[in-house]
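Team,

Forwarding the record for the chain on the shared tracking sheet. I've put the sequence and predicted structure together so nobody has to dig through attachments.
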Amino acid sequence: MVVFARRVARLAEVTAVTDPDGTCVVYRVTGELFFASSNDLVGQCDYAADPDRVVIDLSAAHIRDASSVAALDAIETKYAQRGKTVEITGLNKHNAHLHGKLSGELTPGH
């Protein structure tokens, strides 16, 4: 089980693109988000250096469990602590339902 989790943890990729005027960064997430990959997602953001507006684009990602929602909550919290705003976009119907149901309901741990 541990070997499987390590292998599939790499199925999620994050690409950051800052807009030309430097006022927004978009993190495009692709792949599967679940317990093995969600911690890596939190570590991909540059909380201190990113501009005041951050977009997390999940249009090519799939949220599979509560730990992924907790990771997104942790990202939003870390940016909010720095006075920055986060917009999560690209949620399909399943992802939006899971995120809406669990966001803010999980204990912080990331």
